[in-house]
Amino acid sequence: MLVGGAVAIILVAAGIGWYLIYGGGDPAEKLAEVADEKQAAMGVLTFRDSSSEDDKLQGNGTAWAIAPRVFVTNAALVWSASEMMNMSVDIFIVVKGENGAEQLRVTGSRQHPRDLSSIMSGRDSLPIAAPFDIGLLLVERDAPAWFEIAGESDLLAMEADMPIGFMAHTRTVSLTDPRPRSGSGKIVALTNYWGEASDASERYVIEYDLPVIPEMSGGPIFNVDGEVVGLLTIPMISNPDPSPNESPKYYGQRIDLLKEVWSDYPRD
After folding, report:
1. Which of 139, 170, 190 is the last residue of a domain?
2. pTM of the entire structure?
3. Closest alpha carbon to 72 in 158, 152, 133
């Protein structure tokens, strides 16, 4: 009887703790609501395909607004956009506006100042995720919506089993009606770039169980309050001989990597 009562008390306490941390309700439902509310903050990075007869736009990946004229995506897309602009190619981010798709011309880019070489000292193996895989694209006019960034204390307090959601576009997205894919899951682990347990300030890699595919890289990862905590990225290396029952691992990187890229990054 005493054992049963103790178990009941533990379950009640766990329920109260869940309510206090996540505000009650089903986290998956809350995350789905965020995804629905933030559709207009999601964009498709595109370029003008001069080889086509109608000079149409060609989709090239996911970017999302973090401020009225600032979009975030992964480092490879920022580099690609920068290179194409240097060749006088027109780059746009297509978003879902109130009256249909809107084209926001990209006017500039900012890449993260650090790269793989800056963290390889004393290391014999590659990291599990491409480090500092984040950058900014600047546009000429305001996006219809944008995300908020989670506070520094909340980022450092993240832990395994925390509910998270994501949004991203795939190659099949319609540029006339750009609706992002979305889903939810939990954090599996938080580590440094080598998959090692470390101090919270160095746990930039987020391992998760989100239902993503590699082409979704660059999309935001957010909490139940709709605040961005990370960015979808892909593994640095993959197992060349995976077992039949082995599930691929996908990663994210903590959003405060933007501090070294964006001077207007919000501070606690």
Report:
1. 139
2. 0.87
3. 133
